[in-house]
Amino acid sequence: MADASHDAPPNGLSPIGRRAELIVFGIITALIWPIVAVGVVGGYGFAVWMSQLILGPPGPPHGQ
């Protein structure tokens, strides 16, 4: 009886598993990270905008 571990490549991934891993990596780098980046930058901009609405614009007080 042959052992199944002799058929696997040395790195432990089958060719199908390696292809699936590359597809998932491509989806993460091409779709998910840009969406996360836009969300983080947009969220920061929104937080600055809201803080300026409540606290006023940055700089010295208006009378000085």
3D architecture notes:
With 64 residues, the chain is mainly alpha-helical. The mean pLDDT is 84. The longest helix has 41 residues, at 15-55. It contains 1 helix and no strands. The protein has one helix at 15-55. Helices cover 64% and strands 0% of the residues. It has a domain at 14-55.
Major sheet characteristics: none
Task: Tell me the Rg in angstroms.
Answer: 26 Å
Q: What shape does the CA trace take? A: rod-shaped
Distance between the termini: 89 Å
Tally of alpha and pi helices: 1
Q: Mean pLDDT, rounded to whole units?
A: 84
What is the H-and-E element order?
Answer: H
Low-confidence stretches: none
Number of strands: 0
Hey, roughly how much beta strand do the residues contain? under 5%
| Helix-residue proportion | 55-70%
Topology (elements, then pairings):
Blueprint (H helix, E strand, L loop, with lengths): L14 H41 L9
Keywords:
mainly alpha, rod-shaped, 64 residues
Task: Give a nutshell description of this structure.
This protein has 1 helix and no strands. It has 64 residues and is mainly alpha-helical. It is rod-shaped and about 75 Å long.
